[in-house]
């Protein structure tokens, strides 16, 4: 494709016309959004990250947690003959283990992806640095596995994109160590421009190859097109394979995983979620299996927020909230992170639109660095449920100290510095006996969980 001037230059312009023209029917991804009546702050320019390695060398390398003590290594090569294998070990340049995996590729109109490799390695030791090489070619990479127990630190960033703001956010994230990166949707903002998926993968590789990135889809990952691609998520599912099978899910759009005393659930805002859906039944089953003595912290990530006082995307998560909120409340989920709204907002503990000490803390963190700019307009006066809100780019950090306490902080991008603009200590709900004495099972019977 790189040697064909028509495909390289004219075809992207043609796609731009189709997907970003003023005709709604030709905007499959953007049609999921409501009409924007708010004014966005001008974003910074898109960062183009070119491919500078050979066709056999790995590019777009990223890693993800997959099952207990395992890691999945994902990368892409232009050379379709490169083997899907990873050599790894605990000493740089010395690889005493090798794993072989699988590969895939996909077509989207005239675009053909490279060979997308997925290799599962392990079992691995906790809190240990491993060095690895992909496909027998190219540079050596390294990562550190999460700790076996508390404390553990998560970075949470939504609506990341690939702009100069994105680069600023990732630089701030990298200025302090962490264990796992969580992204509640809207990764590349490719919006059917498949070359932007490649550019995004290269942009985040220095970070995503060193710490596990766990993601769920947003509206910009849908990429449907009438008749030709009616189901969507073709690029997302091929490139960002998550451990859905290991969690009993039948879809890469929703899954869960355990890490260092935490059970984390990634939900799909853009697939069916009503009470008859596969996602709902999976979530009900998944929450029923959680052992809070082993994983006292339970977190949920999704894209479209259930609670939101910003004028942007107002009410878009309401139908999902009505369908699934009871499940989260009865399971005493500790915190719910969302993206979609390009601003930061932290709520109190909520259930059914009311303050409730047994409900989750809701946090919107859709301010990673998207190309559309910030959502500047909030409701006025503010809701008493909303405790802090600000339309600025930034990232969040959740440091879980032990089974009882966690520290949440939101870091605003101030060009060369990341300023802590909001922070709070969270108490784990398993320590609140009053919250567990009155929980109800699905049949309405009381469930006594006083032992927690």
UniProtKB/TrEMBL annotation:
Domain of life of the native organism: Eukaryota
Entry's EC annotation: 3.1.3.2
Substrates-to-products reaction catalysed: a phosphate monoester + H2O = an alcohol + phosphate
Cofactor: Zn(2+); Fe cation
Domain Purple acid phosphatase C-terminal: from-to ranges: 359-422
Gene3D superfamilies, A to Z: 3.60.21.10, Purple acid phosphatase-like, N-terminal
Family stated for the protein in its record: Belongs to the metallophosphoesterase superfamily. Purple acid phosphatase family.
Protein name as catalogued: Purple acid phosphatase
């Amino acid at each position: 494709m790189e040697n064909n001037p028509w495909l390289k230059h004219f075809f992207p312009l043609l796609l731009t016309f189709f997907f970003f023209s003023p005709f709604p029917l030709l905007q499959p991804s953007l049609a999921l959004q409501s009409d924007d009546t708010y004014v966005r702050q001008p974003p910074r320019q898109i960062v183009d990250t070119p491919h500078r390695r050979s066709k056999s060398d790995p590019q777009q390398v990223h890693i993800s947690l997959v099952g207990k003590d395992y890691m999945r290594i994902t990368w892409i090569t232009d050379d379709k003959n490169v083997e899907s294998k990873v050599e790894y070990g605990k000493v740089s340049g010395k690889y005493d283990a090798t794993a072989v995996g699988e590969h895939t590729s996909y077509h989207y109109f005239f675009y053909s992806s490279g060979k997308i490799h997925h290799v599962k390695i392990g079992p691995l030791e906790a809190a240990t640095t491993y060095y690895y090489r992909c496909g027998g070619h190219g540079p050596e990479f390294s990562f550190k596995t999460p700790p076996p127990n508390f404390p553990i630190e998560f970075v949470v960033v939504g609506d990341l994109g690939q702009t100069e703001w994105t680069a600023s956010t990732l630089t701030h994230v990298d200025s302090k160590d962490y264990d796992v990166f969580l992204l509640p949707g809207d990764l590349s903002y490719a919006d059917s421009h498949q070359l932007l998926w490649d550019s995004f993968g290269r942009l985040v590789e220095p970070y995503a190859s060193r710490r596990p990135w766990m993601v769920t889809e947003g509206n910009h990952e849908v990429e449907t097109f009438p008749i030709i691609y009616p189901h969507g998520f073709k690029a997302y599912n091929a490139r960002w394979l998550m451990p859905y099978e290991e969690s009993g899910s039948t879809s890469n759009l929703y899954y869960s995983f355990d890490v260092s005393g935490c059970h984390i659930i990634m939900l799909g805002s853009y697939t069916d979620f009503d009470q008859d859906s596969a996602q709902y039944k999976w979530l009900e089953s998944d929450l029923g299996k959680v052992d809070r003595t082993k994983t006292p912290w339970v977190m949920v990530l999704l894209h479209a927020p259930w609670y939101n006082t910003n004028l942007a995307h107002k009410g878009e998560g309401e139908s999902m909230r009505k369908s699934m909120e009871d499940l989260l409340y009865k399971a005493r989920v500790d915190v719910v992170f969302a993206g979609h709204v390009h601003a930061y907002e932290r709520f109190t503990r909520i259930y059914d639109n009311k303050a409730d000490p047994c409900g989750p803390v809701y946090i919107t963190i859709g301010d990673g660095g998207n190309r559309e700019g910030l959502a500047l307009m909030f409701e006025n006066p503010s809701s008493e449920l909303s405790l802090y809100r600000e339309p600025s780019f930034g990232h969040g950090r959740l440091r879980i100290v032990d089974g009882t306490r966690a520290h949440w902080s939101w870091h605003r991008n101030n060009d060369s510095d990341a300023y802590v603009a909001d922070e709070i200590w969270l108490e784990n709900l398993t320590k609140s006996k009053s919250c567990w004495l009155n929980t109800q099972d699905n049949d309405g019977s009381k469930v006594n969980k006083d032992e927690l």
